[in-house]
Protein 1
Amino acid sequence: MSPKALDYESLNENVKKVQYAVRGELYLRASELEKEGKKIIFTNVGNPHALGQKPLSFPRQVVALCQAPFLLDDPNVGLIFPADAIAKAKHYLSLTSGGLGAYSDSRGLPGVRKEVAEFIGRRDGYPSDPELIFLTDGASKGVMQILNTIIRGEGDGILVPVPQYPLYSATISLFGGSLVPYYLEETANWGLDINNLRESVAHARSKGITVSIAHAFCLNNKITNLDIFWNSEAVRAMVIINPGNPTGQCLSVANLREILRFCYQENLVLLGDEVYQQNIYQDERPFISARKVMYDMGPPLSNELELVSFHTVSKGYWGECGQRGGYFEMTNIPPKTVDEIYKVASISLSPTVPGQIFVGLMVNPLKPGDISYDQFIRESKGILESLRKRARIMTDGFNSCRNVVCNFTEGAMYSFPQIRLPPKAIEAARRLGKVPDVFYCLKLLEATGISTVPGSGFGQKEGVFHLRTTILPAEEEMPAIMASFKKFNDEFMEQYEDHRGYSRM
């Protein structure tokens, strides 16, 4: 009898290739331990509310009223909800064709897309067209839509930064393309060397690859756990993640200019993953969008380079991961291509409408003089200031540990320390059939309950090992978490080192 369609042997081979470390072996083991009663600190994913971050009051009030519009007719509604929340709820309900239970346009509510365009115009100093903005179920769904449009088969390559967020490697595998890596340089605070990027593309093309813009800074170094690299015939796009995930760096204007020139010269689409643009923890390099830098550079680049930018309500001081609100904006994309993207988006009928309203509230925030403004500013500033403190506590904590070194988290929500594993630990891991940093992270999980992601899930140079953790645990809990990590790490190193004084780098 021939296998059935959902028998493992007959599945789509691209599905089998997908690896997603953020919810991989470590997460599954952590979930098992939690069921057994062990306290687990899930630092494997940027999920702020799951780690105790409180929702902002005003957007929740607005969406609550939109979800239960009958409350607006209650004569006592003003005793519970502030007047500006009531007004906002009526505004967003007026933009729908039947409330939150009705489908919207497949691109999202026109009124919210207009608000996104106005936000982009204020941020960048250049107008944006609402017709080139699509609202999506989180930024991830938008990334998948665009990669699905770009990738025609395994011969198509996407440049992705290494270390990279595994959304990209997983999606590229799912759609049958090839990931082309470019390395970020750890000793330069995860910066980009444009010469290494050029070498990566030249190497790819020598193998018959054409480069696509998927913020992939490919260096001529070996990579662990990313065997799909260098298999494509056409590099078509480049991905940049700014601020970086998992590395936490912020790209300078000079770096962005180099990237934009490179993409223009190589005829690549630039995919700008800018979901952490509100998460900045230093003053030297504020967030500046790739779009703004592109327009500042002027023609011909500014009116020819194809650019798609992504944003979401899941990050920043909002942290509304479960609401699934996001958008992408297209610049210099041909109208016929936009029509095709719209056609494919229509298959899903509509992005989630509550998520769209959260996007509207993010891009069209309260203004001075509004009733709820002071509370909103107090809440949002409090979250960002606490994240800045936590970034410093975590960086200093890692750097106090034996054989651990960590760059400061300039932005985003993660630390990505390098763990210098002794040869005996590497050999112990291999005897168990484990990648060495997976072995280390499993030991950490069992000993402390801290659930991280091994660096091999993001890509890294051969023989170099990392882990990624969020900086999201509560500020008051952070010292104890870092003390627990230090105790485990020092005992681990004591067990596996042949002698003291092992090099930190």
Protein 2
Amino acid sequence: MDNFEESSGSQCPPHIESSDYEMDSVDGVNEKSDSDEHVDELDNANELESTCFVAANGSKYWTPNCDDKHKPHTNTYFLTLKEAFTFYVDYGRICGFDVRKSTKKSDARGNRLAKYMLCNRGGNPKKNKSKEVGENVGERPKKTRRTTSRRCNCKAQIILKPAGPRGFVLMSFVEEHNHPLASGAERMFLRCNRNLSIPYQNFIMDCARVNIGPTKAHSLAKEQFGSFEDVGAIVSDFKNFSRDIKARIGDHDVDMILAKFKLKKETSKNSFYYDYKVDKNGHLTGLFWTDAIGQANFDVFGDIVSFDPTFRTNRYNMVFVPFTGVDNHWKNVMFAAGLLAKENYKNFKWLINNFKKAMGRAPFCVITDQCPTIKKALNKWWKQTKHRMCMWHIMNKLSSKVGPSLPANKKFVEKLKSAVYSDHFTPGEFKERWNDIIVEFKLKSNPWLTEMFNIRDQWIPAYFSDIEMAGLLRTTSRSESSNSFFQQC
């Protein structure tokens, strides 16, 4: 090799053998710490796997120490470029570097003359284009992804040219690298050693179904297999696969869920019910579904239903509306669920009519918040259903309606709660208690309290005595807990 000089003075620092170290320790000279021993071990591993040369200009180069049968040789023939690339990748895996395909040379007619395959660190580092200013005045510079290039103009490569019926012949091979090669635990980070197999892909998909992201999925895989090295892929591979799946699905996620619902309806002998609607542009604006279990639960526990459309999905900002009830063990049961693009009268009318169609009847009592569009839809389309409002939403507005001083008054809060939340008062007793509070704290001129008193039969438990289990569902906290549950899914 003409351009390099190999000598004991120009090589990387040699590793000190344990016998030499012990002799020096006895003599009391150059005692080393454990960390120094670890560095020496790494240097020794690198020296065994590659040889470091220093050129005349002082530049260092590394040549892999590889068995001759794995090393590329000129005048070697390959039937296809893929076969040649696979061979070079295997060589890089053994030696500790990644490989990538590079440019090709063609003649004026487009016939390939040569194909280049390089070390992954070949080529010049990419320039940062994020600071470039647009051509037009006032135009903002284009944002580019912030990345750190590992390219260092490494010249290691193979060059192939067409060889007619024999495929391609290796006409040039540059073995030296201008950077250290990966060794030991570093090898797991080489792209050629990272493989996201089909079981891993299925594992990422399964984790996504229960709201576990790719980062946590990678940690779970590490715990299952023992170490990150045993996983065979890094967290970026998990993230990239998750990103590619989302990009591939794109705007077809609605088609996928509708196809899934259609198949479920066919396989369940029509016991699964769903309906949807779209706008004039074909965008989904409403989706409703229920299954056989939800319908059976409604037959038994469906006299009182609570639904609270307050939780919105992240991507499309659609309103999630769970229809919730309580079983005989005081546990939440789901009757049905829906997604709405907007909280307006038209959408709520469509939703509650689908619920009635799927269940065969409307509930005896329904608990909602103070949304006026829900009230309008229920009064017109569920005329026989008693509508009650959520006490929690009403009482939560207290501080903004009566001022900050009264809610801080312990005596006022205790008296108001004893009147509002009591299940044992008659309507007359509640009215008496309420009037005493209004007079004592001089709230007769408060318009909000007057309005709440006028609709007291829609939210005060004293007026729920004719409804069995109304005390359990006098607020939408059941729906809110369901929302919290689905938010974690």
